[in-house]
Each structure stands twice: as structure tokens, then as C-alpha cells.
Amino acid sequence: MTQKLDAYFGEFGGMFVPELLVPALEQLEQEFIAAQNDPAFKEEFESLLKEYAGRPTPLTLTRNFSPNPLAKIYLKREDLLHGGAHKTNQVLGQALLTKRMGKSRVIAETGAGQHGVATALACALLGLKCRIYMGAKDCERQQPNVFRMKLMGAEVIPVDAGSGTLKDAVNEALRDWSATYEDSHYLLGTAAGPHPFPTLVREFQKMIGIEAKEQIVQAEGKLPDYVVACVGGGSNAIGMFADFIDEKDVKLVGVEPGGHGLSTLKHGATICKGTKGILHGAVTYIMQDDDGQIEESYSVSAGLDYPAVGPQHAYLHATGRAQYVAATDEQALDAFQTLCRCEGIIPALESSHALAHALEIAKAATEETVIVVNLSGRGDKDLAHVHRVLEQGGHYE
Amino acid sequence: MSNRYNQMFTKLKEQKQGAFVPFVTIGDPNLATSLDIIKGLIDGGADALELGIPYSDPIADGPTIQKANIRALEAKVTPKDCFELIKQVREYNADIPIGLLLYSNLIFAKGLDSFYGLCADVGIDSVLVADVPARESAPFKQMAEKHEIDAIFIAPPNGSEKSLKQIAEKGSGYTYLLSRAGVTGTETVANMPIETVIAALNTYNAPPALLGFGISQPEHVKAAIESGAAGAISGSAVVKLIEKNLDNPAAMVAQITEFVRVMKAATQTD
């Protein structure tokens, strides 16, 4: 081993996994470093992003969404990416790494099903065997995505253990991997988990922010005042933030799932309300009781329903470089409907949390303010679920 | 460090025996029965005990031990209860080495210093943290040493020469040798031979190796010792006897005691 990446972001991160998985993670780290220095790898990745996935994605200035004429709200349109969300970006990168390592099988966890769909499509494209672990409750909430994965040849395993959501799917994927690492790659879906995943996923997602920066400077002649993204595990947010971190005048805001409200127990706002701990391989903010037992998170959106968060977000919070807030289910559902009506765009429920907070920033603006929101995915997958929730909650206007 | 592991290995060597070490999750299926079970393990002839503290997300465990964790958590067993129970076990037997096997967040939540301090207070000899590999072990090992607790490391079958050397140097008490990849459970049997890993561990003067994962039959114990391990650890096979007898605690304890007796008998080498 020659070169190594830092496994920590300040006090957050690390590689807290069984000894058995260390060689597999260290192999991944080495292969990732080699690939980053290999022009052929970069060329193949970029060509897939462009010709298969449809990059670059546009930056759209909303016409009617902003409630305040002083505030301009731009959307980074990851919803238009093939697969329907930003997930496709990094999955293509990791699938190429899988091939590079000579592995033939991919395992992955999925919450909303977006990462599962992205993994399934990349595996179909690149001829890899694919098994997706998905919480049983999430399979129920996200039926269309289960069907999509199966159509593209993936095997979908519902996980009943624990809360039957993303956290349990991660546990099960890790268990699978500890028996199969010789021929299998664990294609983790977010910028969380053990080193090197938080770094690797960020690097394979950071084109979102790089493009958005160019596009906003083109449109406005300057950097934005705010960059806003939703945070579950945190991959779309870190992809969006990465290229803005050194631009100190740009406020970075991560929006966590506030569920029924931060004063209740039903939320998934790990940075806003969680405490430091170790889950899924990293020291980060997690939802836990006083003994260290992991508590179940809750969100109307399956993709944000996760009781931990990527360690770099924990670090950006601890250092004050980024601000983390929460939007409740109700606020997200309102923003979801507002974007549909105002712009003719159906956003993912996850991204609707970011939209909800962008509306708050816009309302409060007393001078010209430019806000860029990462519209991380489209809402087709959520239609049945939102329909049901709205009928029950009487939010139809 | 306590001297209990050394004394155990010395005594077993004289008697030409390997060690048999059963594992159970503390509080499975509830605290009262769990204490009876653990006394049963001792009565059956266990040379040392490996005990788990129930945790919500046991990623290194297969279905059997996952269920044990769930049963104990459903019985509202807390880490505090576990320490109380271990104190009682220590009162029951002053000499048997007691090892804890648990996940890092339970230690982190308590604070490393207080956690290892508590271990020392109740007479625990060693701590193995399932999700802390050698490369992350420094703060854990430091507190273990401060409180004279042996830090146990896992030697994986895929370990490089370099990582086995590291494990040998860092560990004390015993070395937890994995018989195979994967998670705990009898679904996949132990994959012997493990002679090459043992040879490497011996080269670097690692503490004696106990073989674990997939050990459910007396033949597995015998084979482990013949391959050069100092003994064997069996968890899921014991826990299955709990699962099978949930409605009959007396039969549960009797069957577990008998299981330990049979497994222990297989440790005699001549």
C-alpha cells in the first residue's frame, strides 16, 4: 500500500466493522485511488454519465415557486437523470470499480428504492449479478421501485428484522458481504458507512455541485447565497456541497426529515436531535437511547428514514461550515404540492424537504437572495404513497 | 490483567485438554433464566464464558444470535442489568475467565473509561468488540489496559501476514480465530483447516487461539484442537437450545448443561 485516504473527518468517520471486512474495504480504497489516477477509468465514467445517464443536468430557475420576488430559487435537476435521482451518478462509478476489482456480484441496500433501482440498472448495463436488500416496510411503501429493480434483473430481498427499514437493510447487506467479499462488492448507496465509502461516494457525486456552480455563475454572474439539499444518509447533499465548501460566502443548508416534529419521537433528524455514536461503521450523529441502542427513525419519505448520517455532514455541522435544519412531513408534503402546481415538476418526497426549507429562506428574504436547491429526484415513485397520505391527512386543497 | 486466562490455559495443558467456551447473550430469554443458563454452562464444565450484551444492530451475527438479542431487548434487559448479572456469575464462580463480546456503540454510549471500569468492577476478564478492528482499536485498548482487562482481537481467515502480526501484538488473554468468513451461526459449518493462520499467529507469539463460528458438534471441537487451536467457542448452537425450549426453562438449562458436557468431553486430546 502506498497512498491512503484519511478515514476521518475530524472526530467523525472511521472503519468500525468486523475485522473480516477490513481487507475488502482496504482493497476498495486502493482500487478507488488507482481509478482516480487512471485517465481511462475517468473517461469511461464520464462517458457513461453523459451518454447513458444524461449529464449534465440542467439548472432551472423556477418561475412561480418562490413566494417572494426578492428570492430566486433555482433547481438542480437531478430528477432528470436516468433512473430518476442523483443515485445513478455514484452507482455507475462503483459498478465500474466492481469490474475493475474483478468482482462479478453486487449487493446493495435501499430505502426508498432509488439506490436499488440505480444499482439494478448499472448492473444490467455492466453485466453484474445484483442482489438488493430492502426493508419489508419500505418494499410496501415503494412498490413501483421493487418492480423496477426486478424488471432490470435484480433479486430483491425484503428484510423483516428490526424496524424493516433502511438501517436493517444495511445490516443485512453487511452480513451478506462478510461472507461474500471475495467475489462481491457492497455498493453502498450513500455517503455514510465505513471508510472509504463517505469519501468515495462524495467523489462520485460531486459533479452535481461542480455543474451547479458553473451554471449559477453563468446565469447570475455570481455564486448563490444559499445551497440547499435534503439529508438522509447525505449523498445528494455532499455531492451538492463539496465544490462549495471552500466558497465561504455560500451558505450550505442540509435539511433533515422532521417527521411529525422535532419535539416528538417520530423524526429522522440525526444532526438536529441525535447524539454522537457509532453505527454502520462510522462515528457520527445517530439516534440512540442512553444505553446506545439504536432508535428507529421516522419520515414520510423512505429515502430519509435513517438513524445515522454521513460523517462528513457531522463534521460540517460540528465545524459550523454547514447548517442543518429539519422540515416536517407536513412541510415537505406542502412543498411537494406547491412545486407540482407552480412549476409542473413532481419532486421526490426526499427533495421536497429541501424545497420546503428553500421556501422558508425565500419568505424571510429582505434583500435579493439566490437559492440553489438540489432537486435530487423525481416523485413518480411516491405517487401512490402521497395520494394515500393526502387522503388520510386531508391536505387536498 | 487478570490471570484467569493464563491459569486456564496452563491447567488445560497439564490435563492435555483444549478449552471449550460457550457463548450466550445475557438476558436471553430473560434475566432470571439467563442466570440459570450461565450457571448451567459452568456446571456443564465450560472452561471460560463468552457473554454478549444485547444490542439493537448486531451486524456480525447470523439469525440465531440476532433473535437472542431481540428476545433480551424485548425483556427490557439493559447493559446495567448485564453487569449486575455478571457480578452474580462471578460470585458463583471466582476462577472462570469471563469474556464480554459486544458492539462498539454500547461502549461509546457509556464512555470508554467508565465502561471498562465497570467491567473491572464486576470481575470481567476480557472484552471483544465485534465491530472494532485492529486499525480502530487504540482508544479501546488503552482503556482496557488502564482497567486491566484483556483486549481480544479477531484473527480472520483472510488476514494478511501483516494484519495477523498486528492482531498478535495487540491482543492479550486469547485470540478469537475465525473458522470462516460470514456471520455467526450453524448454517455454515466451520471451515478447517486453519493451520496456516495458527502458524502465523504462533510466529508472532499471539495469545492462544480459540476457534469460533460454526462450531456446533463435538467433532468440530476435536478438529479445532487437532488443527492447533487451544480450544473452541460455540454460540449459536447453545442459543438454539434456548430458542427450542422457550416454554420450558428447566429443560432448557438441562439440555444446555448436557450440551456443554458433551462438547467439553471432546476437548480431551489423549
Molecular structure report:
The complex is a heterodimer of chains A (397) and B (270). Chain A is built from 15 helices and 14 strands. The model of chain A has no long low-confidence stretch (mean pLDDT 95). With 397 residues, chain A is an alpha/beta fold. Chain A is globular, with a radius of gyration of 19 Å. Chain A has helices at residues 22-36, 39-53, 87-100, 114-126, 136-141, 143-151, 166-180, 197-203, 207-220, 235-241, 270-273, 311-318, 329-343, 349-364, 383-393, and strands at residues 8-9, 12-13, 59-61, 71-77, 105-110, 129-135, 155-159, 184-186, 226-230, 251-259, 275-279, 282-286, 322-328, 369-375. In chain A, α2 crosses α3. In chain A, the strands form 4 sheets. Chain A has a 6-stranded mixed sheet with strand order 3-4-14-9-10-13, sandwiched between helices. A 4-stranded parallel sheet of chain A has the order 7-6-5-8, sandwiched between helices. In chain A, α10 links the parallel β9 (226-230) and β10 (251-259). Chain B is 49% helix and 14% strand. The mean pLDDT of chain B is 96. Chain B has helices at residues 4-14, 31-43, 63-74, 79-92, 104-110, 112-122, 138-146, 161-170, 195-203, 218-226, 236-244, 249-265; strands spanning 19-25, 49-52, 98-102, 126-129, 150-151, 153-155, 175-178, 209-212, 231-234. Chain B has 12 helices and 9 strands. Chain B is of the alpha/beta class and 270 residues long. Chain B is globular and about 45 Å long. In chain B, β1, α2 (31-43) and β2 (49-52) form a beta-alpha-beta unit. The longest helix of chain B is centred in the last third of the chain and has 17 residues, at 249-265. Chain B starts with a helix and ends in a 5-residue tail after the last helix. Chain B has a 9-stranded parallel sheet. In chain B, 60% of the residues are buried. Classes of the chains: A alpha/beta (397), B alpha/beta (270). Chain A binds chain B through residues 14-23, 161-162, 167, 171, 174-175, 178-182, 276-281, 283, 286, 288, 290-294, and chain B through 55-62, 66, 73, 78-80, 104-110, 130-136, 153-156, 158-160, 163, 167, 178, 181-183, 188.
